[in-house]
Amino acid sequence: MKIRLNCLNHIFLWLLLNLANSVNCYAELSGNLTGTTDYIWRGYFKSDGKPVAQANIDYEFKSGIYLGSFASTVNFADHGFENRSTAEFRPYLGFAYKLSDDWRFNTAWTRYLYDGKIFGQVADYNEFYFYSHFRDLLTINLNFSENSYQQNHMSLNTEITGRYPITDSIEISSTLGYNKQKKVLGYDYLYWTSGLTVYFSRNIGIDARYYGGIHASSRKEDILYPHWEFHPHVVDNRIVFSISVGF
User: Fold this and answer.
1) Whole-angstrom Cα distance, residue 77 to residue 39?
2) Rounded to an integer, what distance in angstroms lies between the CA atom of residue 224 and that of residue 215?
3) Can you tell me the distance from the alpha carbon of 232 to that of 177, in angstroms, rounded to the nearest whole number?
4) d(Cα 247, Cα 245) in Å, to the nearest integer?
5) What domains appear along the chain, each with residue ranges and CATH number?
6) What is the pTM of this model?
7) Per residue in 75-111, pLDDT tens?
8) Which of 116, 186, 217, 219 is deepest in the core (most CB within 10 A)?
9) pLDDT digit string (tens) for 41-87?
């Protein structure tokens, strides 16, 4: 697999890694493995409606700096194209800050890396995240890319997620989001999810979740970029099951 990172990414990565190495050596390592019946992302499929395997590893320093990587199998349904992507990697670096006993703030950078192409084109790109958390009950996030999927246009996504623990081992949660990708994917997506998570132990959990959405707006067919055919339709009325094992 050939990983393509530009000079800016190398500099940013070097600076943050050196900053992390300079702080207190105390750190916490965590990770998880997940099997899920679908990979749904901000209103559209990244798995063509098929099961995927996912993994995440995270290393957090006492200072609030954290780094890690997410990985998942993918299927963009670009049959007929050569060198199709089958895996997505998302290394990330961020900083978490506790504003008060109730409020926390996170900011992060991530890089989407694919082991091949998407509909015949290289599609690696950066994204920047800003999170605000109220206790463990509410999360508001804003994320944007300056060059989403390397299509020379910005993208913007906003989400609000609410959670409520019914018991120590059962939690319900819902998300409402808006994914502004019309200039890149042909559509803007308004999407929502709602589900139930059950924890059998501290490190094992299962999740059942409903996904819905609509096309909030779309580009006219005659001005869609003809050189790229990735225009995923919105996910509508889908139930996804997953099981996760962590450490």
Assistant:
1) 13
2) 15
3) 17
4) 7
5) 7-246 (2.40.160.40)
6) 0.86
7) 999 999 999 999 999 999 999 999 999 999 999 999 9
8) 186
9) 999 999 999 999 999 999 999 999 999 999 999 999 999 999 999 99
